[in-house]
Protein backbone atom coordinates (compact mmCIF):
# COMPACT_ATOMS: atom_id res chain seq x y z
CA UNK A 1 0.00 0.00 0.00
CA UNK A 2 1.34 3.42 -0.87
CA UNK A 3 1.43 5.97 1.92
CA UNK A 4 1.83 9.32 0.24
CA UNK A 5 0.52 11.98 2.55
CA UNK A 6 0.06 12.36 6.26
CA UNK A 7 -2.33 14.96 7.54
CA UNK A 8 -2.60 16.44 11.02
CA UNK A 9 -4.48 14.56 13.70
CA UNK A 10 -5.53 10.96 13.75
CA UNK A 11 -5.97 10.40 10.06
CA UNK A 12 -3.85 9.80 7.03
CA UNK A 13 -4.26 9.10 3.35
CA UNK A 14 -3.25 5.56 2.45
CA UNK A 15 -3.11 4.86 -1.27
CA UNK A 16 -5.87 7.41 -1.76
CA UNK A 17 -8.11 6.09 1.04
CA UNK A 18 -8.84 8.24 4.08
CA UNK A 19 -7.79 6.19 7.10
CA UNK A 20 -8.80 7.66 10.43
CA UNK A 21 -9.53 7.14 14.06
CA UNK A 22 -13.27 7.80 14.25
CA UNK A 23 -15.19 9.14 17.25
CA UNK A 24 -15.63 6.78 20.20
CA UNK A 25 -19.28 5.82 19.83
CA UNK A 26 -19.87 5.13 23.53
CA UNK A 27 -19.02 8.76 24.40
CA UNK A 28 -22.11 9.95 22.50
CA UNK A 29 -25.27 8.53 24.08
CA UNK A 30 -27.64 9.07 21.14
CA UNK A 31 -25.04 7.84 18.66
CA UNK A 32 -24.57 4.71 20.78
CA UNK A 33 -28.34 4.09 20.64
CA UNK A 34 -28.28 4.54 16.86
CA UNK A 35 -25.41 2.06 16.53
CA UNK A 36 -27.33 -0.44 18.66
CA UNK A 37 -30.28 -0.02 16.31
CA UNK A 38 -28.09 -0.54 13.26
CA UNK A 39 -26.37 -3.56 14.85
CA UNK A 40 -29.80 -5.16 15.35
CA UNK A 41 -30.92 -4.30 11.81
CA UNK A 42 -27.74 -5.80 10.35
CA UNK A 43 -28.11 -8.90 12.51
CA UNK A 44 -31.61 -9.44 11.08
CA UNK A 45 -30.23 -9.42 7.53
CA UNK A 46 -27.01 -11.36 8.13
CA UNK A 47 -26.68 -14.91 6.91
CA UNK A 48 -28.05 -17.14 9.68
CA UNK A 49 -24.94 -19.35 9.68
CA UNK A 50 -21.27 -19.19 9.05
CA UNK A 51 -18.52 -16.63 9.39
CA UNK A 52 -18.88 -12.91 9.07
CA UNK A 53 -16.37 -10.27 8.11
CA UNK A 54 -16.64 -6.58 8.87
CA UNK A 55 -14.81 -4.14 6.62
CA UNK A 56 -13.47 -0.83 7.95
CA UNK A 57 -14.95 -1.22 11.43
CA UNK A 58 -13.24 1.88 12.81
CA UNK A 59 -13.74 1.72 16.57
CA UNK A 60 -17.00 -0.17 16.58
CA UNK A 61 -17.30 -3.66 15.20
CA UNK A 62 -20.56 -5.49 14.84
CA UNK A 63 -21.07 -7.82 17.83
CA UNK A 64 -21.45 -10.81 15.48
CA UNK A 65 -18.37 -10.10 13.35
CA UNK A 66 -15.89 -12.98 13.47
CA UNK A 67 -13.18 -11.13 11.59
CA UNK A 68 -12.55 -7.42 11.13
CA UNK A 69 -10.46 -5.53 8.62
CA UNK A 70 -9.29 -1.93 9.10
CA UNK A 71 -6.79 0.05 7.08
CA UNK A 72 -5.82 2.33 9.98
CA UNK A 73 -3.47 0.36 12.20
CA UNK A 74 -4.43 2.24 15.38
CA UNK A 75 -8.02 1.03 15.00
CA UNK A 76 -7.17 -2.59 14.46
CA UNK A 77 -4.65 -3.05 17.28
CA UNK A 78 -6.93 -2.35 20.20
CA UNK A 79 -10.27 -3.56 18.90
CA UNK A 80 -11.70 -6.17 21.22
CA UNK A 81 -13.74 -9.23 20.48
CA UNK A 82 -12.81 -9.52 16.81
CA UNK A 83 -9.83 -10.99 15.08
CA UNK A 84 -8.72 -7.61 13.75
CA UNK A 85 -6.54 -7.43 10.68
CA UNK A 86 -4.86 -4.34 9.35
CA UNK A 87 -5.70 -4.51 5.66
CA UNK A 88 -7.25 -2.56 2.82
CA UNK A 89 -10.79 -3.46 1.79
CA UNK A 90 -9.65 -2.99 -1.84
CA UNK A 91 -7.41 -6.09 -1.55
CA UNK A 92 -8.68 -8.48 1.11
CA UNK A 93 -6.20 -11.02 2.52
CA UNK A 94 -8.74 -13.87 2.47
CA UNK A 95 -9.41 -16.84 0.24
CA UNK A 96 -12.38 -16.97 -2.14
CA UNK A 97 -15.71 -18.06 -0.62
CA UNK A 98 -14.49 -17.74 2.96
CA UNK A 99 -17.38 -15.77 4.52
CA UNK A 100 -21.16 -15.97 4.62
CA UNK A 101 -21.74 -12.34 5.57
CA UNK A 102 -19.70 -9.24 4.75
CA UNK A 103 -20.63 -6.03 6.56
CA UNK A 104 -19.37 -2.56 5.63
CA UNK A 105 -20.61 0.61 7.23
CA UNK A 106 -19.96 4.29 6.58
CA UNK A 107 -16.67 3.90 4.78
CA UNK A 108 -17.09 3.89 0.99
CA UNK A 109 -16.94 7.69 1.08
CA UNK A 110 -13.37 7.30 2.36
CA UNK A 111 -12.34 5.76 -0.94
CA UNK A 112 -12.18 7.54 -4.33
CA UNK A 113 -15.34 6.91 -6.33
CA UNK A 114 -13.56 4.95 -9.07
CA UNK A 115 -12.18 2.43 -6.53
CA UNK A 116 -15.38 1.57 -4.69
CA UNK A 117 -16.16 -1.11 -7.26
CA UNK A 118 -12.95 -2.93 -6.26
CA UNK A 119 -14.24 -3.17 -2.70
CA UNK A 120 -17.59 -4.60 -3.78
CA UNK A 121 -15.82 -7.03 -6.14
CA UNK A 122 -13.54 -8.14 -3.29
CA UNK A 123 -16.57 -8.63 -1.04
CA UNK A 124 -18.08 -10.84 -3.74
CA UNK A 125 -14.89 -12.83 -4.12
CA UNK A 126 -14.66 -13.67 -0.40
CA UNK A 127 -18.40 -14.36 -0.04
CA UNK A 128 -19.58 -17.92 -0.45
CA UNK A 129 -22.48 -18.52 -2.86
CA UNK A 130 -25.72 -17.49 -1.16
CA UNK A 131 -23.83 -15.15 1.19
CA UNK A 132 -24.94 -11.63 2.09
CA UNK A 133 -23.32 -8.26 1.68
CA UNK A 134 -24.72 -5.62 4.05
CA UNK A 135 -23.73 -2.03 3.44
CA UNK A 136 -24.75 1.01 5.42
CA UNK A 137 -23.57 4.17 3.75
CA UNK A 138 -24.16 7.89 4.08
CA UNK A 139 -26.29 9.49 1.39
CA UNK A 140 -25.62 12.99 0.09
CA UNK A 141 -28.34 15.57 0.59
CA UNK A 142 -29.13 19.10 1.58
CA UNK A 143 -29.98 18.18 5.16
CA UNK A 144 -26.66 16.38 5.66
CA UNK A 145 -24.79 19.38 4.22
CA UNK A 146 -26.65 21.82 6.40
CA UNK A 147 -26.28 19.73 9.59
CA UNK A 148 -22.56 19.07 9.06
CA UNK A 149 -21.85 22.69 8.29
CA UNK A 150 -23.67 23.73 11.46
CA UNK A 151 -21.70 21.17 13.54
CA UNK A 152 -18.47 22.48 11.99
CA UNK A 153 -19.37 26.10 12.80
CA UNK A 154 -20.13 25.10 16.38
CA UNK A 155 -16.73 23.41 16.63
CA UNK A 156 -18.11 19.86 16.97
CA UNK A 157 -16.61 18.67 13.67
CA UNK A 158 -13.09 19.18 12.33
CA UNK A 159 -14.25 19.53 8.71
CA UNK A 160 -17.53 20.11 6.96
CA UNK A 161 -16.85 18.48 3.63
CA UNK A 162 -16.54 14.88 2.57
CA UNK A 163 -13.51 14.58 0.35
CA UNK A 164 -14.86 11.90 -1.98
CA UNK A 165 -18.59 12.35 -1.46
CA UNK A 166 -21.28 10.07 -0.15
CA UNK A 167 -23.32 7.68 -2.30
CA UNK A 168 -26.85 8.22 -3.50
CA UNK A 169 -29.19 5.23 -3.42
CA UNK A 170 -28.82 5.02 -7.21
CA UNK A 171 -25.02 4.90 -6.92
CA UNK A 172 -25.24 2.11 -4.35
CA UNK A 173 -27.54 0.19 -6.65
CA UNK A 174 -25.18 0.67 -9.63
CA UNK A 175 -22.14 -0.48 -7.61
CA UNK A 176 -23.97 -3.64 -6.61
CA UNK A 177 -25.35 -4.29 -10.11
CA UNK A 178 -21.95 -3.81 -11.77
CA UNK A 179 -20.12 -6.06 -9.35
CA UNK A 180 -22.28 -9.14 -9.42
CA UNK A 181 -24.88 -8.65 -6.69
CA UNK A 182 -28.65 -8.94 -6.60
CA UNK A 183 -30.07 -6.35 -4.27
CA UNK A 184 -32.44 -7.84 -1.73
CA UNK A 185 -33.24 -4.62 0.10
CA UNK A 186 -32.31 -0.97 -0.26
CA UNK A 187 -33.80 1.37 2.31
CA UNK A 188 -33.33 4.84 3.65
CA UNK A 189 -32.43 5.54 7.26
CA UNK A 190 -32.14 8.86 8.99
CA UNK A 191 -33.85 11.31 11.24
CA UNK A 192 -33.81 15.11 11.53
CA UNK A 193 -32.42 14.49 15.03
CA UNK A 194 -29.06 13.28 13.63
CA UNK A 195 -27.11 16.43 14.67
CA UNK A 196 -27.99 15.66 18.31
CA UNK A 197 -25.90 12.50 18.06
CA UNK A 198 -22.74 14.63 18.32
CA UNK A 199 -23.64 15.51 21.91
CA UNK A 200 -21.83 13.81 24.77
CA UNK A 201 -24.54 14.77 27.28
CA UNK A 202 -26.47 11.92 28.84
CA UNK A 203 -29.81 13.65 28.20
CA UNK A 204 -29.26 13.25 24.42
CA UNK A 205 -30.07 9.53 24.79
CA UNK A 206 -33.62 10.54 25.66
CA UNK A 207 -34.08 11.50 22.01
CA UNK A 208 -33.63 7.85 20.94
CA UNK A 209 -37.36 6.91 20.87
CA UNK A 210 -38.14 10.07 18.89
CA UNK A 211 -35.22 9.30 16.58
CA UNK A 212 -36.86 5.92 15.93
CA UNK A 213 -40.17 7.51 14.99
CA UNK A 214 -38.76 10.16 12.68
CA UNK A 215 -37.01 8.10 10.01
CA UNK A 216 -37.70 10.35 7.07
CA UNK A 217 -34.56 12.38 6.43
CA UNK A 218 -32.09 10.97 3.94
CA UNK A 219 -28.91 10.31 5.92
CA UNK A 220 -27.89 6.70 5.35
CA UNK A 221 -29.01 3.88 3.14
CA UNK A 222 -28.92 0.24 4.04
CA UNK A 223 -28.32 -2.20 1.20
CA UNK A 224 -28.57 -5.95 1.51
CA UNK A 225 -27.38 -7.95 -1.47
CA UNK A 226 -26.46 -11.47 -2.44
CA UNK A 227 -23.96 -12.59 -5.11
CA UNK A 228 -25.58 -13.35 -8.45
CA UNK A 229 -25.23 -16.99 -9.47
CA UNK A 230 -23.97 -15.89 -12.90
CA UNK A 231 -20.41 -14.78 -13.59
CA UNK A 232 -19.75 -11.05 -13.50
CA UNK A 233 -19.25 -9.04 -16.69
CA UNK A 234 -16.15 -6.93 -16.16
CA UNK A 235 -14.70 -4.23 -18.34
CA UNK A 236 -11.03 -3.35 -18.31
CA UNK A 237 -9.57 0.12 -18.73
CA UNK A 238 -6.87 0.06 -21.41
CA UNK A 239 -4.55 2.90 -22.40
CA UNK A 240 -5.22 3.86 -26.02
CA UNK A 241 -2.51 4.82 -28.48
CA UNK A 242 -3.40 8.49 -28.21
CA UNK A 243 -2.73 8.28 -24.45
CA UNK A 244 -6.38 8.43 -23.41
CA UNK A 245 -7.87 5.60 -21.38
CA UNK A 246 -10.79 3.67 -22.86
CA UNK A 247 -12.95 0.93 -21.54
CA UNK A 248 -12.72 -2.44 -23.26
CA UNK A 249 -15.97 -4.21 -24.06
CA UNK A 250 -17.34 -6.28 -21.20
CA UNK A 251 -16.13 -9.85 -20.81
CA UNK A 252 -17.56 -12.63 -18.72
CA UNK A 253 -15.41 -13.46 -15.73
CA UNK A 254 -15.97 -16.10 -13.09
CA UNK A 255 -15.26 -14.71 -9.65
C1 LIG B 1 -16.26 6.93 9.12
S1 LIG B 1 -15.26 5.59 9.68
C2 LIG B 1 -16.50 4.33 9.96
C3 LIG B 1 -16.05 3.29 10.91
C4 LIG B 1 -17.10 2.21 11.26
N1 LIG B 1 -17.44 1.38 10.12
C5 LIG B 1 -18.34 2.84 11.83
O1 LIG B 1 -19.40 2.78 11.21
O2 LIG B 1 -18.23 3.38 12.93
C6 LIG B 1 -14.45 5.01 8.21
C7 LIG B 1 -13.40 3.95 8.48
O3 LIG B 1 -12.97 3.38 7.26
C8 LIG B 1 -11.59 3.07 7.35
N2 LIG B 1 -11.12 2.90 5.96
C9 LIG B 1 -11.03 3.85 5.01
N3 LIG B 1 -10.60 3.31 3.85
C10 LIG B 1 -10.45 1.98 4.07
C11 LIG B 1 -10.02 0.89 3.24
N4 LIG B 1 -9.69 1.09 1.97
N5 LIG B 1 -9.95 -0.34 3.80
C12 LIG B 1 -10.27 -0.54 5.10
N6 LIG B 1 -10.67 0.46 5.92
C13 LIG B 1 -10.77 1.70 5.42
C14 LIG B 1 -11.04 4.27 8.11
O4 LIG B 1 -9.77 4.03 8.67
C15 LIG B 1 -12.13 4.48 9.16
O5 LIG B 1 -11.89 3.73 10.33
TrEMBL record:
The lineage of its organism: Archaea, Methanobacteriati, Methanobacteriota, Stenosarchaea group, Halobacteria. Its EC number is 2.1.1.-. The keyword Plastid does not apply. One of its GO terms (molecular function) is methyltransferase activity. Keywords: Methyltransferase, Transferase. Residues 76-135 form the Methyltransferase type domain. This is Class I SAM-dependent methyltransferase. One of its GO terms (biological process) is methylation. InterPro entries: Methyltransf_11 (IPR013216), Methyltransf_Superfamily (IPR050508), SAM-dependent_MTases_sf (IPR029063). It comes from the Archaea.
